[in-house]
Sequence to fold (157 residues):
Amino acid sequence: MRARAGKASVYRRWPSKGQLVLDAVTRMGHREVALDELPDTGTFRGDIMALIRPEAVDDGARRLTVMAGLTSTLAADVTGLAEAVHAASTEPWVVANRTLIQRAIDRGEVRVAVDVDTPTHVVPSMAAYRVAIERKPVDREFLVSVIDGVLLPALGL
Fold:
């Protein structure tokens, strides 16, 4: 859809392309994770697999594709853009993963001494790499392979 606005109108609102992109990415990430609505199947694997809904995969893939397109802009180090990209593309999943891992620890399914922070980043980081570097889609098959082959073993499951 076209806004039918000239450059002057755009630059009155955003002083540079970088600021425009920063604002767009920041708004893209304004979806809070409803932690009280995360699945609770009784097992960590069941919980994390329940997050792989087609609409969530599609939305995540769309966000990651946008972020991959920003690679050159990120290299230019526009103030705040890298943080906004992280907040929009990976942080919601990191928060959800941290909650699910903590729940598994509380149930006694995962040992208390496990490093919680690193595994929370495994799936979102590998998904971002797959889209940005490998230029491949993030689909259910890929997510299941990362969960079963990397995340669960990292947690001792």
Summary: The CA atoms of residues 65 and 121 lie 18 Å apart.
